[in-house]
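Data availability (excerpt). The following record was deposited with the supplementary files.
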Amino acid sequence: MKEFFKWFSDNPELSNKPWLILGKGPSFAKYNQFNLNDYHLLSLNHVVREMPVKMAHIIDLDVFEDCAEAILNNAEYLIMPWFPHINNRARNRTLSEHCNKHSTLQQLSNSGRLISYNLSSAVTHHPGWPVVHVKYFSAEAALGLLTGAGVKKIRSLGIDGGNQYSNDFSDLKDKTLLANNRNTFDEQFQEIARIIFKTGVDFSPLDLPSPIRVFVATTEDQMLSTKVLEYSIKKNSSMSVEVIPLHTTGIEIPLPDKLENRPRTPFSFQRFLIPQLNQYQGRAIYLDSDMQVFHDIKKLWSLPFDGADILAVGEPKETGRKPQFSVMLLNCESLGWDISNIVNNLNEGQLNYETLMYEMGVAKNIKAKIDPAWNSLERYEKGLTSLIHYTDMNTQPWVSKEHPLGYLWFRDLFEAIDAGFITEDYIQNHLKLGYVRPSLGYQVTHKIEDPLLLPGKARQLDKNYKAPFTRLHKHQGSPWIGKHHYLRKFGRRLYKNAFMAGLINLALGLIKFTRRLIRYVRFQ
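Predicted structure:
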C-alpha cells in the first residue's frame, strides 16, 4: 500500500500542471465550457463515474462500492484514507483489511493504483504518515492532500455552497445529499479558507476570475488597520485574495483648485485609480481601510453586474446618511476613469465634490445590489454582519479606547500576530511614529482584548495623544442628507452620553451606599 505524500513526491509528472477538483455541486455542469486538458483532474466521490480522472478521492467505503466499476475504468489512481468511513463515520478496520474482502480494492492495490493517507477523523492512524485534516466535507481533505504535496495552483468545479447537486447527480439526491447531517455545503468554505490562508495556495472556482482583487484606500499611518482588514478578509475567504493598498501604487493624484472640491482625506480620491491599475479589465473590489470583514468576500466578488458599471451598498434612508460608496464592486472594463480628467472636470465645474463622492457622477449605471450587511456603520450582529465600517475617526479602535466594538478589532489583531501575519516590531514602529494610540502597545503586550477594560495606568498613556487624522484640513462638505439628520444624530449622542453618565453616577452611588452599609453592620 502506497502512502500518498511519498507516492506524490516520487512522481514529478503529477506537478507539471495545475489541479482541478471536481465535486457534485451545480457548477459541475459547466465542465464542458473549459479545456480540462489543462489540468490534472481529481474527482470527489461519485464524480468518477462521469469522466476519466487522474485521481478519484473517496472517503466512504459504501461510495467506493457504488463506483467500483467506474473507478476501474475511469481513475488512474484511487485515493482513500487508511481507516475508511462507512455510512459517514470513521471505522476501525484498515484499508488493507478491506482489500482482503473487496476484490476490486485488491486489484487496485496489486496494480499500484491504490494510494492511502491518514485522515483526522480516525481514532488511530498509520504510524509515520502525516494526518490530513477534515471537518465537514471531502473537498477539504482533497485540498489538504494537494497543498500538503506542494501543489501551488488548484481550481474547482462543483464545490459549491447551498444544498443542491448538479443535475448530473440527481439520482443521488435522496441517497447522499448532505447525508453527514450537515445543514449546508457552505460549511466547507470555513475550512477551505483556513487551508488557503495557511498554505498560500492559489485556489479558486474555475468559473470565477482569480484572484479576488481588493483595492484599499489608505495611507502609511493607516497601515495597521489596513493589515488587520487584510487579515480579516483572507482568514474568511474561500478563494485566493490579493489586497492592494492604493497609496503604494505610485500614481500621483492632483488636487482640485477649489478647497470645497478637495478630498476630505488623503485617500478619498484613490478609488478612482482602480480601473487604470486593473488595466481596465475584469472586476475589482474597493474598500476603505477602516473596516473589518467577518464573512467570505467571495460572496461579494461573485455578484453579477447585470449591465452595471458599479455595484454599491444601498444606505437605508433611516440612517440619514448620503451614499458613501465605501464598498464597491467595479466593472473595470466599463469604467474609463482617469484621475487627471476627473480633477479637470472638478476645476471646470462639470463636477463638484458632492456629485463626485456622494452620487459617483463619473459612472453611468450604478446599482445598489450589495447587501447592507457589507457596510455596517459602527454596528455588529453576530452571524449577520459581513463588514463593520468604523466611520467615526474619533473612536476607531486603533486610536481610541472607547469604541464598544473595539474587542472585535483586537481579536483579529491578536490572531494576526499569533499567525505571524503582523509582527510586534511592525506595531512598535507604528507606536513610535504616533500612528496608533500609545495604550495599544500595553494592550498588545498584555493581550487585553477589550480596550474598555484597560487599567488606569494604561489609559493615562494616551493623555496627550493626537491621532493622525487631526492634522487633516477642515472641509465644507457634509456626509448627511440634511441638517435635521445631523441634529438628530447629535441629539442621540448627547442623550447616550447623558444616559451613560447617569448610569455611572448611579453605580458609584450604589457602591458608596454598600460600603456605608457594610461599615454600619460591622459596628453594630
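Summary of structural features: The longest helix spans residues 483-522.
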